[in-house]
Design brief:
alpha+beta; Helix Hairpins; about 20% strand; binds adenosine-5'-diphosphate; binds magnesium ion; HisK_dim/P_sf; phosphoprotein; phosphorelay sensor kinase activity; His_kinase_dom
Length: about 450
């Protein structure tokens, strides 16, 4: 069960505090009871002594003349009852209440004990005094007992206020902690309102001023997240704007071509030309749309498919697709793919996306290399990695352009059709497969070598 922060904090405070109150209450009750017992026993003894003083020999016999002061000592508003008994030599009752019980043991010292009389609890002291008279010695035992009302009252008066004070403190804590928390949690609630009241597109950092320092890391983390979101949204927005702009060009062209085709009288040959132009425009749009979809797909999959993909099969299939395009430009398209069992070039990922990666690189090489050039796709195992390379002997990419070729819609100056998305797609797919892409120069400083390093499949 999820308890509220209030309840938790309250528990943390109240449980130990309550335990503390109980323990101190017990300890102080014990101390107070001890004090009350001492006071009561002292009063009993002093009363017994006063009675003992007034027992004397009279004509060879002992007489007890109990002074009222001996019992007045107990006078209190609590109406305690006092009993006494004077016994000579352990048997002859000289006076008092015969039912008052004697001590269980004889002692020259005063003996204190608890007893009952008429069903009431009493505290009793037995005190022995030796009385001498012309060679005679008689032990006289004075027993004084009293009910416990004043003792209870004393106990209560001493102990209860203290206990009540501690309970009050406990109640105060129980009341103040939730109140304090409500006040202290206000900044958090403000933070929450600040977040919930935002418009969907309002991606400003949250204000941290006035917040307790414990909350700062949370706000910092949220702000960091917001900053990333902001960058992401900005790139996304830029991407959509760029894509729209790129699609507008062939669309405008198509529009012009359609206007041209409908406005005038044309003979069949001109019309065929116009139609061919229109086909190129729509092809360009189709290519662009396909590339955009591919890029969107590569970007949006947080982790791609985890199939076991044989790169040699992917390369073979791409070369098969592109062999006609290469032949058209008299390009010698070849492959050098390791497929010995020990060297298997398996990687983990999506066959479709890896196909797109290889296709984009080989397609670039075929397009940008001069007619009669050479394009080779290489794939080999390198330790924990599979390395795929496309090598051509074309113009290569000048150093100043290398930093930009991976940007979306960036295009070189070569008069070749394209969307400027190919290498962005390649990089996105490589990253998605936890791989890297690097550009290099060919063996004799001509052409381009694009190397893609992917983690090899692990069994
Ligand atoms: N094999 C290559 N040889 C020379 N230049 C290349 C090669 N591959 C890519 N480039 C350059 O990089 C640019 C970006 O490539 P890419 O992202 O595939 O877009 P696109 O091919 O549609 O222009 C190209 O316009 C071209 O200038
Ligand atoms: Mg390309």
């Amino acid at each position: 069960m999820a308890l509220s922060l209030r309840a938790r904090l309250l528990l943390w405070l109240m449980v130990p505090l309550a335990a503390f109150v109980v323990v101190t209450a017990l300890v102080s009750y014990d101390a107070v009871r001890h004090t009350a017992d001492l006071a009561q026993d002292a009063a009993l003894l002093s009363s017994a002594r006063t009675i003992g003083e007034d027992i004397d020999w009279d004509d060879g016999r002992l007489t007890a003349n109990i002074p009222p002061a001996a019992l007045e000592i107990f006078e209190s508003p609590y109406q305690d009852q006092v009993f006494y008994k004077v016994v000579v030599a352990g048997k002859e009752l000289l006076g008092g209440n015969p039912e008052l019980e004697g001590p269980s043991r004889e002692s020259s010292q005063p003996v204190f004990y608890d007893s009952t009389l008429d069903g009431r609890q009493i505290r009793v002291v037995a005190y022995v005094r030796q009385l001498y008279d012309s060679g005679k010695v008689e032990p006289v035992m004075v027993i004084v007992g009293k009910t416990q009302a004043s003792r209870h009252a004393m106990l209560e008066q001493l102990w209860r206020p203290q206990f009540l004070r501690e309970c009050l403190m406990l109640a105060l804590v129980a009341a103040l902690v939730p109140l304090g928390l409500t006040v202290e949690l206000r900044p958090l609630m403000k933070l929450k309102d600040d977040l919930t009241d935002r418009l969907p597109m309002q991606i400003e950092p949250m204000r941290a001023e006035g917040l307790p320092w414990e909350l700062r890391p949370i706000v910092d983390a949220i702000n960091q997240c917001i900053a990333q979101l902001k960058v992401h949204t900005a790139t996304q927005r830029q991407f959509i704007a760029d894509a729209a702009h790129q699609l507008r060009t062939p669309l405008t062209l198509l529009d012009t071509q359609i206007q041209y085709a409908t406005r005038r009288e044309h003979d069949g040959l001109v019309l065929a030309d116009v139609l061919e132009g229109m086909r190129r425009s729509t092809r360009k749009m189709t290519d662009m749309t396909n590339q955009l979809l591919l890029l969107a797909r590569a970007e949006s999959s947080p982790s791609c498919v985890h199939d076991k993909v044989d790169m040699s099969a992917v390369v073979a299939s791409v070369l098969e697709d592109l062999i006609v395009a290469a032949q058209r430009r008299a390009i010698d398209l070849g492959a050098d793919v390791a497929d010995g069992d020990a060297d298997k070039v398996y990687v983990e990922g999506s066959a479709n996306l890896l196909h797109a990666l290889v296709a984009n690189l080989v397609d670039n090489a075929i397009r940008y290399t001069q007619e009669g050039g050479q394009v080779t796709a290489l794939c080999k195992r390198d330790g924990e990695h599979v390395v795929f390379q496309v090598v051509d002997n074309g113009p290569g990419i000048p150093a100043e352009a290398r930093a930009h070729v991976f940007e979306r819609f960036y295009r070189g100056t070569a008069p070749v059709e394209g969307t400027g998305l190919g290498l962005s797609i390649v990089r996105e797919i490589a990253h998605l497969h936890h791989g890297t892409v690097a550009l290099g120069q060919g063996a004799d400083s001509t052409g381009l070598v694009v190397s893609v390093q992917l983690p090899a499949w692990r069994n």
